Amino acid sequence: MAPLRSWFNIPRGSHFSLANIPFGIISTSSSRNPHVAVAIGDHALDLDVFAANNGFSALSTIQPHQTVFSQPLLNAFAALGRPMHSIVRKYIESVFLENTPFPQVLKDNAALQKEALIPLKEVQTHLPFHIGDYTDFYAGLNHAYNVGVLFRGPENALQPNYKHLPVGYHGRASSVVVSGTPIRRPNGQILENPATGKKAPIFSPCRKLDIELELGAFVCRPNKMGEPIPIDEAEESIFGVVLMNDWSARDIQAWEYVPLGPFNAKNFATTISPWVVLMDALEPFRAKGLENDCEILPYLKEKNEKSFYDINLQVDLKTSSGSSTTVTKTSATNLLWSYPQMLTHHTITGCPMQVGDLLGSGTISGLEPSERGSLLEQNENGKTPIKLSGGEERKFLEDGDVVTITGVCGSDEEALVGFGGCVGRIEPALSM
Question: Which pathway (predicted)?
């Protein structure tokens, strides 16, 4: 399909083309209270201002609900449901079309353009949702295998349950932060020399601080306690997707995770990108995920095997010297379980989900070393330093390092569907 043309100047190569229209929360110098916006090119369309100036005059279905755009979070808009999200997104798209059927709304309204279209460099982005609960899954088969080989050998790399259910654990919602938030190196208990006979920890700043390249999905439809979400209905409960870096303290994790799994090693920070790409925008990029060679139980079987998305993912590491290196390039198709499967399995017990709940995909890795979504995999748990530009090396993250995750669908420079950036800078641990 030919890319959509707009009367508005959308830079070629922008992640926020007319084919995207992602939603987020912004504040500005003139409106310091956070509220809803969409990203378009290198601008944000302030939907609070847009709605207050009759921007939705040609969309009667949203008019009784326009107060959602003045809210400081996307929960209220998300709760309106997938059909409404789709209608609003298509309407905004139509307003920006070169041959828009509604020129009076914005194209011919210079005053509203000046007030509602704000350069992205001039807005402050905020956490898009109130996140009541956060569940991190482990759906990246290649990552799970690579890490399993490191600690258990190739024969026992995957646990017997891995291909039968989406493995997950309950994370810490209070430490999910928006892109750009500094990340404090955590302190904790570590084994200074795991090979010694006596297992006695020391208290120390984390020495093996790592990244985890993930996607996150937000829930938009609650289910009642005791009532699971059927697999055929699960897609309707997913609002959209963000990039995610689930920072990991590998040495703290190695000491604490038996027998109950991650705790302090994962609760100190999870970074997400600010713009939520709606499922409708991702629809043209549906793809198959990794093949599961196990017969899964009927409640997890999907009618559409293309329930994954062809998102090109990249991780860049910039050191305090200013040198930047691309350390990972991979695809979001490197997942064994889809978001509908994760959600259905999560609720099969009758667990009640709420609007704004966040589901992490788990680390996404390809087969090649350059496609691995964590430093742990790339350096084989510290055995092999990673070569960076300018002659520097890394085993794990150092203070001052800046990690940037990007993700984009498509190759047409005028019709990209991207996520912007997911950025975090490592700050020194507190002295205790």
Answer: Amino-acid degradation; L-phenylalanine degradation; acetoacetate and fumarate from L-phenylalanine: step 6/6
